[in-house]
Structures are given as C-alpha cells and as structure tokens.
Specification:
transport; Putative proline/betaine transporter; cell membrane; Growth Hormone, Chain: A; mainly alpha; globular
Length: about 425
C-alpha cells in the first residue's frame, strides 16, 4: 500500500498546490488587472494540463501493461518532479513577458502527462496487489494518499500565510511548495525502485503469449463497452471532486467572502476528515459491493449540490463553511473510495492499466479539468448558480450508469483465481 500509493501523495501535492497557490502567482505571469481575469488565465492553464492526461494515459498505460506496474510508477514520479522544478524557477511577466507563462504551460503539460499515467498505474498496482475481499479497502488508500498530498499543500499554504506577509507570498513565497515537491519526488523515486511487481502482471508476463498485443489500442477496442463505462461513471465523480477540493478554497474566498487564510483552513479540516473515512468506505464496499456506494454518491450529488453550494455562498462563519464542505465530501466518498478498484476490476490483466488510464483521463480532461474554469466562467457572467446545476447534471448522467452497471466486487484478477472460481462454481452446481 505504501509503495503503490505514496507517489500519489507527491504528485497530487504538486498538482494541488498549483490550484491552491494560484491566487498568489496569477499576477506574476499575466498583466495586472482584474483578479478574476487573472485567475481565469491560470485556471485555463490548469485545464490545459488535463488535456495532456489522455496522452499520458495512453503512453504510460501502455507502458505499464508492457513493462510492468513498477516501471510505470517510477517513470510518472520522475516526470512530476521535473514539472514542479520548472514552475519553481519560472520567470515572471515583469522579467520576460509571456515567456514565463509559456514555461508554466510546459510544466503543466508535463504534469498532465505524468498524472494521466500515475492514476492508472497506482490503481492497477493497488488492486492487483490486494487479496480478494480486501481490494476495496486497499485501493481506497489511493485517495488517502492523494488527499494527504493536498493536505500537505494546504498545510504549507497555511504556514506560509502565517509566517510571511501577503507581499512576500505574491513575490516569491509561492515558489516554495514547488521546490518542496521536486525534492520529495526524488525520495519517492528511490522508494518505488524497490517495489515488488504484482502477481497478476507476473503471471501474464510469464505466459509469453501475446506480448506484442499487451496494452495496445486494438486490445482496448475489444473492451470498448468497459472503456465507455469508465468515462460515464467518472463524469459525475470527477466534476464533484474538483469542485469541492481544488476549487473550494477560491470559492470560499471569492464568493462567500471568507479571508484567504480562513478559506484555506476550512479546506484543510474538511479534507483531513474526508481522508480518514476513505478506508472505512472502501472496506464497506468489500462487504456490500461497489454499486451501493456509487449509487449513494449519484443521488447525493445530484440532489445535494445546489443547496450545499448555495448555502456555502451565503455562509460567513468558519464553522458553517466547514460543516457544509464536509457534508459535500462525505457524499463524494461514495465515489472516491472505490472508483479506482471498480475500473481496474472491469478489465483483464493484459490491458488493465491502459483500460483504466485512457478512458479515465479522457473523462477528466472533459469534465474534471474544466470544472474550475466553468465555475469561474459562470461567475464572470453573473450566473454563478448555473455551475451548481451543471455539477448536478453530470452526477445525474453517472447515476444512470451506476444503476445499470454490473457488480465488480467478486471479479477474478488472475487466471489462477478465475480457474479456482470456475471449479468452485462447478462443484456447487454438482452438489
């Protein structure tokens, strides 16, 4: 669990601090003017990073199916380290004009490439490395590590806000978290070099057959129904997740009127509690199945987004904002705690990483990566409540999928397990 998930911590720390510190470095890369316009520019670059995720999902998913989960996990964290370092040393608009924004864009493209492969490699590794009946619990640590990365980023933001002046943060303080991320990635690289390969991949590799076809688009097309299913079931979850994590701090600051420091503290506390309940929800799915949790999320997000976001816009207290934010994150847990294992359980070993990576990355590019930009667009247009209905609509589409999809909890991931399952079934039939 540690080896498979710790890279997520560093990668999502880097990914998240971009969004968390955007209010401080937005003015460093673009001409001075309207604050919302500057945030739209940085949010646009944030969204562009998501459009590299399908490419990363294709290249690194293929790499994971052909070279192994361990090799892919090591490569992704190397790419993320390089991108964090680029942002840390990028020159400002006053120094080189828009060239600094160009470097920022290149770094975000590298991050998108890396995260596009990291999610699938990690999800596949954690799922394959788990014992049957424990896959939901173990794979939930993917979002534990992702959330921990966000918490460390937010914690660093809170510390810097309380130890540095606002001017210092806008001047150079925003570079500190990216330096931290680049250094931390080197440690994770060393840890991942010592990972053991999963039994499912080792078994597939040992057969010696179909090596050239592992992780190919041709093989993925043989499972097009499952690929479309991944896109559809991801749609509502990814929009809701990015709304209540990466966008929440700016929403509380720009719309609710909380101070930047209070908004950051609300996000920190809510995310910490959210992180703690992921394993419990994952373990619950091992007992009752994946679909009940997904369906609960679908109904909760579809019906609860508009009232929760409306109430958040009108709250002016720390406690009120915390309770509402936590309520939203509890609903989302029905998706986050198990979405990785559900997707991995849909595909056979020879195309599992690519099958998870590419469809998921496409869904994130279309819906997750644009969530913040769409929210700010609605705000600039003077119709912010339209975004609430957009999130609810995405959840409604995914809910239809949750209600009609098959249960994946008891799927056999190795040939040995499948043969044993078939033998047990024949024995029960004979009896």
């Amino acid at each position: 669990m540690l080896g498979g998930s710790i890279g997520n911590l560093v990668e999502w720390f880097d990914w998240f601090v971009y969004a968390s510190f955007a209010t401080y470095f937005a003015g460093a890369f673009f001409p001075k003017g309207n604050d919302t316009a500057q945030l739209l520019n940085t949010a646009g670059i944030f969204a562009v990073g998501f459009f590299m995720r399908p490419i990363g999902g294709w290249l690194l998913g293929r790499y994971a199916d052909r070279r192994g989960r361990k090799a892919a996990l090591t490569l992704t964290v190397t790419l993320m380290s390089a991108s964090a370092l680029l942002i840390a040393i990028a020159p400002t608009y006053d120094q080189v004009g828009y060239f600094g924004a160009f470097i920022l864009l290149v770094a975000r493209l590298l991050q998108g490439l890396s995260v596009g492969g990291e999610y699938a490699a990690s999800a596949t590794y954690l799922t394959e490395a788990s014992q049957p009946g424990r896959r939901g619990f173990v794979s939930s640590f993917q979002y534990v590590s992702m959330t921990m990365g966000q918490l460390i980023g937010l914690g660093l933001l809170i510390v810097l806000q309380r130890t540095m002046s606002d001017g210092e943060l806008h001047s150079y303080g925003w570079r500190i978290p990216f330096i931290v991320g680049a250094v931390a990635a080197a440690v994770v690289f060393w840890l991942r070099r010592n990972l053991l390969e999963t039994e499912a991949y080792t078994e597939e590799e040992g057969t010696g057959g179909g090596t050239a076809e592992r992780g190919t688009l041709r093989q993925l097309l043989n499972h097009r129904k499952e690929a479309l299913l991944v896109i559809a079931l991801t749609m509502g979850g990814t929009v809701a997740y990015y709304t209540y994590t990466t966008y929440l701090t700016k929403y509380l600051s720009n719309t609710a009127g909380l101070s930047k420091s209070d908004a950051s503290l609300v996000s920190f506390c809510a995310l910490f509690l959210f992180m703690l309940i992921q394993p419990a929800a994952g373990s619950l799915s091992d007992r009752i199945g994946r679909r009940p949790l997904l369906i609960t999320f679908g109904f909760g997000s579809m019906l609860g987004t508009v009232p929760i976001m409306t109430a958040l816009a009108n709250t002016d207290t720390f406690l009120g904002a915390l309770v509402l934010s936590l309520a939203a994150l509890v609903i989302i847990t029905g998706y986050t705690s198990i979405n990785a294992v559900v997707k991995a359980e849909l595909f056979p070993t020879h195309v599992r990483a690519l099958g998870v990576a590419l469809p998921y990355a496409l869904a994130n590019a279309l819906f997750g990566g644009t969530a913040e930009y769409v929210a700010l667009w609605f705000k600039k247009a003077g119709a912010e409540s339209g975004f609430y209905w957009y999130v609810s609509g995405c959840a409604a589409v995914s809910l239809i999928v949750y209600l009609t999809m098959r249960e994946t909890r008891d799927t056999a991931l190795t040939r040995e397990a499948a043969e044993k399952e078939a033998a047990d079934s024949l024995r029960k039939t004979a009896v």
